[in-house]
User: Which sequence fits this backbone?
């Protein structure tokens, strides 16, 4: 008995099927009328098959009248294409199907956006008609790749001895640093659940409960403003936790998993091999790259040259260094052939980014140029260049000021110079651990010490460090995994000691009672025998984005929101009915209207 819709899918037929009578179903992808002969590309999830109808085919008139994206079932005969018309880019490119009959399953109206082709189209249309957008080749392929990557992650985690456990979605508010999505309780008037920003406390409780190696492809919810590498609302992470481990063991366990996933989907691009991920201290990363998520494909290294300007004819730098500031430099190799405009454009770019400016020195055939070199003097510039290992045709950019500002400018300038000079190797995935993060940081707005990363981390030196050292000098057993300028994972060894936990929170102004009130479940659990434990979470969305070569997370996500956190397809968020509000004991309080 013949299947009512298909004997084969649209990616299956080959030259070995020539002569067969087949049945195919799919979408009319493209149509080409060659004067009495109609060629139709029929598409389904698996591929495209070329359908041919001529004046001898009863299917011609019906196919000719249909709009593209209509769904049809076609019966026909498989024929070999002539050698001149073989399409090597299609799996089915050696054959075509001569249509004997056609049945229309669903007619398409005029399309609000094209499906065939990859042309740019307004985002609001793409999101409102996402079901059409998802038919487009690149996006469709990206989504399939995403599912394969997640499947590969699961297989590798299970192979490493981890077991997947599901943690609750309705939970309590957590201190992850972002706004919670709150869910009102109907049963408990005036009280709210929160959607989890991460399964952090639950996975630690699993370790206390004795499960040892946990992982989960976990949905996480944060009410944050969207950006290109972070979706509004929700995202997914490969979440994991291990008991009785050091941070080195976590790195050694996860490097084969992450490197393996990248190698499987890198399509020949270089991946940093497992076992050789560099381990870069946070302070070193901030100095050399101006960021804690460096792109190591870029060979440029930032240096601190403040000591060269403690006594200098260039008074601005001498004054900055004398008042506690820094001078950082970014090489611009082999720029002797660049005009002064290249350097001036870089300075103008820095100003457009909100900085005071980006100083520079030019050099051609050993001759220095620019105000900094003129005032500092050729002999001192030669000494500086020799220390940096720079050549006679290398330029140099300068970022000077307060350390935080200078590091930020130098980091951004390093990226821009690398891009402008085409120094970044595009066909590589360079992975590295950033380690030894500061446990605390100074909040200039609040004028107080705050956690710089994860408040549940173990401080290096334990409770003694918290009691005896300046908080801003304490490092944590915290680490990030970075790739090509993106943070793709973050983790730590956890603070499983109740007294140490209380002391850590006291230094940011929270009392023991606050700890018990906010993190009561975790704090109580630590009273009853908690193993040393640690873990990390890797961003599934960012990993998929990198491997697919996408520049925006919406290009690897099924049904994303727009930049205003709106779901244009389903119409969310939407007003609640009065009946629903009454059931939840809620009243809408309108925001105050602007004055004037």
Assistant:
């Amino acid at each position: 008995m013949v299947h009512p819709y298909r004997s084969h899918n649209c990616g299956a037929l080959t030259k070995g099927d020539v002569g067969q009578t087949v049945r195919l179903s799919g979408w009319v992808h493209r149509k080409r009328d060659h004067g009495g002969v109609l060629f139709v590309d029929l598409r389904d999830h698996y591929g495209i098959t070329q359908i041919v109808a001529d004046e001898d085919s009863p299917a011609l008139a019906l196919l000719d009248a249909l709009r593209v994206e209509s769904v049809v079932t076609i019966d026909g005969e498989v024929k070999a294409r002539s050698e001149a018309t073989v399409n090597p880019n299609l799996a089915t490119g050696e054959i075509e199907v001569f249509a004997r009959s056609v049945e229309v399953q669903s007619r398409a109206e005029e399309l609000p956006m094209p499906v065939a082709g990859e042309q740019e189209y307004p985002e609001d249309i793409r999101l409102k008609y996402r079901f059409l957008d998802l038919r487009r080749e690149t996006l469709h392929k990206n989504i399939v790749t995403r599912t394969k990557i997640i499947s590969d992650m699961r297989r590798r985690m299970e192979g490493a001895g981890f077991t997947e456990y599901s943690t609750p979605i309705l939970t309590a508010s957590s201190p992850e640093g972002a706004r919670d999505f709150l869910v009102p309780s109907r049963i408990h008037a005036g009280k709210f659940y929160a959607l989890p920003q991460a399964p952090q406390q639950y996975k630690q409780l699993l370790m206390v409960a004795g499960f040892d190696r946990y992982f989960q492809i976990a949905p996480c919810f944060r009410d944050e403003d969207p950006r290109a590498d972070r979706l509004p609302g929700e995202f997914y992470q490969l979440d994991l936790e291990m008991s009785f481990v050091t941070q080195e063991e976590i790195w050694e366990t996860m490097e084969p998993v992450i490197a393996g996933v990248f190698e499987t989907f890198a399509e020949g691009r270089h991946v940093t091999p497992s076992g050789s991920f560099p381990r870069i201290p946070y302070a070193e990363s901030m100095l050399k790259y101006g960021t804690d998520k460096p792109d190591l494909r870029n060979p440029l290294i930032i240096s601190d040259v403040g000591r060269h300007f403690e006594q200098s004819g260039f008074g601005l730098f001498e004054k900055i260094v004398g008042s506690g500031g820094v001078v950082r430099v970014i090489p611009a190799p082999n720029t002797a052939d660049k005009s002064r405009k290249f350097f001036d454009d870089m300075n103008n770019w820095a100003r457009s980014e909100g900085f005071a400016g980006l100083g520079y020195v030019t050099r051609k055939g050993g001759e220095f140029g620019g105000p900094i070199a003129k005032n500092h003097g050729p002999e001192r510039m030669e000494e500086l260049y020799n220390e940096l290992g720079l050549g006679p045709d290398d330029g140099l950019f300068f970022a000077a000021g307060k350390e935080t500002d200078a590091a930020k400018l130098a980091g951004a300038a390093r990226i821009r110079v690398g891009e402008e000079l085409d120094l970044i190797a595009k066909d590589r995935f360079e992975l590295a651990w950033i380690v030894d993060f500061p446990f605390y940081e100074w909040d200039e707005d609040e004028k107080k010490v705050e956690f710089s990363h994860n408040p549940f981390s173990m401080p290096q030196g334990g409770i003694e460090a918290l009691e005896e050292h300046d908080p801003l000098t304490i490092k944590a057993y915290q680490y990030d995994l970075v790739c090509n300028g993106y943070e793709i994972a973050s983790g730590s060894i956890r603070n499983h000691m109740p007294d140490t936990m209380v002391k850590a929170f006291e230094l940011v102004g929270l009392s023991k009672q606050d700890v018990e009130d906010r993190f009561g479940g975790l704090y109580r659990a630590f009273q009853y025998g908690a193993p040393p434990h640690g873990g990390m979470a890797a961003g599934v969305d960012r990993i998929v984005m990198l491997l697919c070569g996408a520049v925006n997370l919406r290009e690897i996500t099924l049904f994303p929101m727009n930049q205003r956190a709106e779901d244009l397809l389903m119409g969310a968020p939407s007003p609640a009915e009065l009946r629903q509000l009454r059931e939840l004991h809620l009243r809408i309080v309108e925001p105050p209207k602007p004055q004037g």
About this structure: The chain has a mean pLDDT of 94. The longest strand covers residues 21-33. The CA atoms of residues 545 and 551 lie 7 Å apart. DSSP finds 18 helices and 24 strands in the chain.
